[in-house]
Design brief:
The chain is 34% helix and 24% strand. The protein is an alpha+beta fold and 321 residues long. It has 12 helices and 12 strands. α1 runs antiparallel to α4 and α4 packs antiparallel against α5. The termini are far apart. The chain is globular, with a radius of gyration of 20 Å. The strands form 2 sheets. It has a 6-stranded mixed sheet. Strands 5-6-7-8-10-9 form a 6-stranded mixed sheet.
């Protein structure tokens, strides 16, 4: 039973996007890497009980999962030493083509603003994307001193209650409330100059795959996929995509143009949700930094922030290629 469940759960990753929007399939797919652990348990039990078929099913699940997941642990294009040196300085250098970036879902404004500001300061973050902000949260974030490090911002809300925002150490050119024209939420965008390279940042929050919203979940990811057609702009998307790399609609959004920073950097898994359930470990990497072609990433880090159900995801990016 364990071997069969592991194989079925693993192969669900290969389902086309239209089938992955079926009820509860997105939840199963989000646990894809963990089916390798279930398969390993099944393999050990099969060996002990001399069950050949179960052992073969378990090996198939482990092999398939390994084939899909190993790129997370290998980077063919690592960050140059110059990028590592740049973000290791005592203060952020806003005039080079390297930047430390961060994204966090603040859980309906309940995350600790001071913890966020301290993290921005400690990690020398140059561009910050936050999701599920509220007016009160933004006010408390200012009181905590965010403008000392990131004085430029664009925050927008589609329902007047919860919003998404961008904060930057340098001016945000051409800011807009919704870069994507999304049915899920307003996803604000703004252009940042990184060493002479104009990069369009977008704070992303798609629809969650929950009962009653399965189809809308896929639709919001498909809407992001339309951004691949904007070939006159170089993008970095950061936020809560409510999808892992194993979800077909997320990979369809990436296409041949965009790349997931964690996947491309060889950092390993960046499980970031949930953080507010003591009996459940973080098992899903649904927060992402997505880079346009010709960019590199590294130094991935996941940090829990008090008050949020997500962990913050940090990356160092090089936009100079």
């Amino acid at each position: 039973m364990f071997a069969l469940a592991a194989l079925i759960g693993t192969t669900a990753r290969a389902l086309p996007g239209d089938l992955q929007e079926l009820p509860y399939v997105p939840i199963v797919v989000s646990a894809t890497p963990w089916f390798a652990l279930l398969a390993l348990i099944a393999l050990l039990l099969a060996i002990v009980s001399h069950r050949v078929l179960a052992a073969l099913l378990a090996v198939a699940a482990i092999g398939l999962n390994g084939y899909w997941q190993y790129p997370f642990f290998y980077s063919p294009n690592p960050l140059p030493q110059a990028a590592l040196n740049a973000v290791a300085a005592s203060e952020a250098n806003t005039e080079d083509a390297f930047a430390r970036v961060m994204t966090l879902n603040v859980y309906k404004g309940q995350a600790d603003p001071q913890a966020i500001v301290d993290l921005v300061s400690d990690q020398r973050v140059e561009v910050l994307a936050l999701q599920e902000t509220t007016d009160d949260f933004v006010k408390r974030l200012k009181q905590a001193g965010i403008e000392h490090y990131l004085p430029y911002s664009q925050v927008s809300s589609s329902d007047g209650v919860y919003g998404n925002g961008l904060w930057s150490a340098t001016p945000l050119a051409d800011p807009v409330d919704d870069e994507v024209n999304s049915s899920a939420s307003f996803m604000p965008g703004g252009t940042v100059d990184l060493g002479g390279y104009r990069i369009r940042f977008v704070s992303v929050h798609t629809t969650a795959p929950v009962p009653g919203y399965w189809r809308q979940w896929k639709r919001s990811l498909d809407e992001l996929g339309l951004m691949r057609e904007h070939t006159d702009t170089r993008y970095i998307f950061m936020g809560d995509f409510n999808a892992t790399y194993d979800h077909t609609p997320f990979r369809d959004f990436l296409g041949t143009r965009f790349q997931d920073a964690a996947y491309a950097s060889g950092h390993g898994f960046t499980f970031s949700w949930p953080t507010n359930r003591p009996w459940v470990p973080m098992f899903a990497g649904i927060d992402h930094v997505v880079l346009d072609q010709g960019m590199r990433a590294g130094q991935g880090k996941v940090v829990q922030v008090e008050g949020s159900d997500h962990a913050a995801l940090l990356m160092t990016v090089d936009v100079m290629q």
